[in-house]
Amino acid sequence: MNTPAFHLAAKTAVITGGASGIGLAIARRFAAHGAAIEILDLQPTGLETAVRELCNGGYRANGESCDVADPASVDAAFARLLARHERVHILVNNAGIAHVGNALNTTPEDFARIQRVNVNGVAHCTQAALRHMTTQGGGVILNLASTVSQMAITDRFAYATSKGRGARHDLLDRQGFPRAWHPLQCHHARPHPHPFRGWLYRQELSGPRGRDVRETLQGPTHRPHGHAR
Fold it and tell me: Which of 30, 78, 111, 159 is catalytic?
C-alpha cells in the first residue's frame, strides 16, 4: 500500500488566486490530501467554477470574492471564512498579476498596480492569517515566488521586482515576522520552467531563533518537510 506523501485531514487551507492556474492546482492537491479549501479570488465566475469542481469531486471547498490589494477586503474575507472554520492552518499566498514592459516603458501606474497585488497583497493576507495563527498554536504560510526574480526575462520589469520582494523571506522575516515562541512555518516556493525541478526556500520559526534552509525539489516524488500544524 502506498503511503501518502502528506496528509491534511482536519486542516483548513486558504489559497489566494486559487480559482485558476497554479493556485487551482494547489487547491486540488491539498483537497485530495484531506484539507478543507478556502479559495480567495477576484474573479467571481472562475471562483464559482473552481469551488463547484472541488465539491463535485467530493472535497470540502468554499470561495470568497477578495481583492488581496485591499486590506479591508482581505479582513472581510477572513472573517467570513473563519465563521465556517475554527482555525486557519495553512495560507498559500499565490495571487499575483503580470505585466509586459521593460524599465523604460513601464509606467509608474502599471508598476504600482503590480506591487499592490504581488507585494502588498502578500502582506495583507499574511497579517490577516497571523492574527489567528499566533493565538491558535501555529500554522504554515507558503509564498509563491518566481524564477524571474533571479534570471533575465525580457519585458518583465515590474513583475520580476515584485516577485523578488513580495514572496521571498525578506518581506516577512526581516520586516517583522513574529519569531519568538510561535510554532509557525513560512515556506517560499519558486516554480521552475522545468517540470521536475524548482526551489523551495524554507524558514521555520519555532522559538527565539530561526533557521533558513534552501532545498532543491526533485520531481513529483518529493515529500514535504512535514504536516501542517
Answer: 159
